[in-house]
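FAQ: What does the model actually see?

It sees only this:
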Amino acid sequence: MQELINESIMTMVNDGTVSIDRAKNLIYIKEFIDRISTKTYIREETAEELRKKYGVRPNIITWGDYFQTEMATSLLVVPDDEFNRAVETLRFDMVASWMIFSEKDGSFFRWVDDTYDRIIDAKSAGYTEEEQEILHIKILKEYYTDLGLVNRFTEGEMRWFEGFEEEKVV
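And it is asked to produce this:
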C-alpha cells in the first residue's frame, strides 16, 4: 500500500501542526513527483543495507517522499500563501525542467555546468539577472537528471503551465 503522507511527518499531520489544506498539497506533491520521476531518492539496495545495519528502514525512499517531507518541515512556519507559492514554484520548475532538457544533448548539459561554475567562481554575490537565470537553470538541470524526469504530466498540469507562459509573454 502506498503512503499518502510520509511517516516522518505523520505526527505533524495528526497533531494539527499541518493544516488540511497543506496536507492536501503535500499529498499532491508526493504523487506528482513520484509520477514524473524514474529514479528514487535512495536505491532499494541502500535502503535494505540501512535496515540491516540499523534495524530500521529509511522513511524517505522516493523523490516524492523527499520533497513532501522537505516542504512540510522547512516551510512549517511560513504563512499559507507563501507555502502555496512554494508548491506552485516546485510544480512549475518540474515542468519547465522537463521542457528545457528533454530534447537537449550532452553539450547543452555541459554548457549549463560550465557556465554555472564560471559564475560561481567569479563572484560570491550581486549576480546579474542573466547570471541568476543560469543559476536557476542549473537547479532545473539537477532536477531533470537526478529525478530522471519524464513527461507524465496531466493535461491540467500542462494547461496550468502554459497559462504561466502566456502571462509571461503578455
